[in-house]
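[Meeting: bench + compute handoff]

Bench side (C.D.) handed over the final construct sequence. Compute side (W.E.) agreed to return the predicted structure before the next meeting so the bench team could plan truncations. Sequence as handed over:
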Amino acid sequence: MSSTLHPMLNVAIKAARAAGALINRAALDVESVRIAQKQVNDFVTETDQAAEKAIIDTLLTAYPGHGILAEETGKEFGAKDSDFVWIIDPLDGTTNFIHGLPVYCVSIALAVKGKIEHAVVYDPSRNDLFTATRGRGAFLNDRRIRVSKRAQLRDCLISTGFPFRQGDNFKAHMAMLTDVMPRVAGVRTPGAAALDLAYVAAGFNDGFFHTGLSIWDVAAGSLLVTEAGGLVGNFTGEADFLEQRECMAGNPRVYGHLVSLLGKYSQFAGAGDKAGVRQALAEDSAAAEAAPADDQTDAEPAAPQV
């Protein structure tokens, strides 16, 4: 680890690599990993839990007075009233992991008085280390990274993720995709939001949008994006998004395009926009319900004339 990095970032890197080593070992025989289901389609494995413990132990050994906010254990560990809070997702992309799909990562961010100051996103399967410190830029394996320079949506690759929990608004997400897909070069759904944001920071993706995310999904990735010259916020473009469960990111031009397309789907959209979205979704639902009765494609073929 570089001696020029902030000491707290160095500790976060140490914690991320410790977790990554556990994840890589488990990935060698992923079928033997014990899995539990938190809710429908929302899984946790013993690897998530072991990785989270390794991260917390490393962080609190170095900074016992700091607070912890972790996906699996919440605020159980660490100081309860510290201005310094580590926000941890030990294995973002658990569903990919348990299927042997190597698209997952460790995400660690440090918030100081509510503002993200340091970030690490570590992809253990590729040994890719994304890091950022506020005001010092974003890096991939010690190489400075910047968001892409593409300005037109038609040239852009956009990443997102499908809703998967009970209660998620699948119809609204499909409507967003309907608005975005015809206007871009492609849409990808890798399944690990922290890695999606890191890829926006590196210019691999030009933009990203997702609903239903928790703070540990986006905290580290959001600093990577802004330190790489990009913008991140909610669907209406407001920067105070960390706990609002909607996130959008991109280079400045692409971000502006996405706000104009998706702002109406935000929980903070104006009443007129919300009413328009509700009406469009209702019309789509009515059309879908009517389609089977009108659809003759599955009818029995007519008997041949003799």
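W.E. noted at the follow-up: The chain has eight helices and 14 strands. C.D. will use this when planning the next construct.
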